[in-house]
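Lab notebook page, bench 4
Experiment: in silico fold of construct C2
Operator: M.H.
Input chain length: 80 residues
Purpose: comparison with the prior construct
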Amino acid sequence: MRPFETADVASIEMLKARYETLKAQLAAAEGAQDAQRAAAIAAELQEMVDKASAELLRIADRLAALTEERSRSLWRRLAG
């Protein structure tokens, strides 16, 4: 009997092909997880940017009001 029969070689080739398929599927799944994680991080960063922008706008409004008040003369500020 030969070490490998034709059926054995075919089985080995089929297993190799299945291994490569599973390896590709695993890589795709890992890539999808990385993409989901990246999307979650991006969403979190966008939320932080939105909050920071809102806070900066609020500060800019307060600064504009303060500048306007300071631009009036002292006696007008005192008079109301």
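Observations: Residues 6-79 form one domain. The helical segments are 6-71, 74-79.
Next step: discuss at group meeting.
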